[in-house]
Amino acid sequence: MTKTPLLAAALLALGAQLAHAAQPLPAVDVYKSPYCGCCGQWVEHMQAAGFTVRSHNVDDVPAARKQLGMPDSLGSCHTARIGNYVIEGHVLAADVQRLLKEKPKAVGLAVPGMPQGAPGMETARPQPYDTLLVSNDGQTRVFARH
Q1: Which of 11, 14, 27, 89 is 20 to 30 Å from 60 at the Cα level?
Q2: What is the pLDDT of residues 77-109, one digit of tens each?
């Protein structure tokens, strides 16, 4: 048995992985107050992870959140849309990347409030927090623990 078919199969698999990895990340539209510094830091976190971010300063973040379909009870200081998902608050870029890879049927992800230590809320005394997956019926489950 020759090694050529095995080598060809391995090269095809590697090529498929590289093509998948080379796909650009979708753009993120962030709706935030023009006066919130931590929102800008979250935007920088997402950009550092390779996302193209378009910031939209709005006077009423809760109205933007509602329009995008995120429950107000999960609110934070900014709301974002990426593809068909809504991202609420200081969600870690790696969690967003995982969401895009796994593609669950859901509204999106939320980190309610403004937990110390989340992206854009860095501090010397971080607190544990959860990233929640928000289902289409508004129910949540823990997507990641930080």
Answers
A1: 27
A2: 999 999 999 999 999 999 999 999 999 999 999
Query: pLDDT class for 19, splitting at 50, 70, 90?
Result: very low
Half-sphere exposure of residue 57, counting CA atoms within 13 Å on the CB side? 6
Question: Max alpha carbon distance in the chain (Å)?
Answer: 69
Q: E-strand spans in the chain? A: 28-32, 53-57, 78-82, 85-89, 108-111, 130-134, 140-145
What tokens appear for 42 in the block?
Answer: 């979250």
pTM of the model: 0.83
- Other CB atoms within 10 A of residue 36 CB: 16
Residue at 29: amino acid letter: D
Strand ranges of the sheet holding 53-57, from the earlier edge strand across to the other edge = 53-57, 28-32, 78-82, 85-89, 108-111, 130-134, 140-145
CA 39, 76, 114 angle in degrees (round to 5)?
75
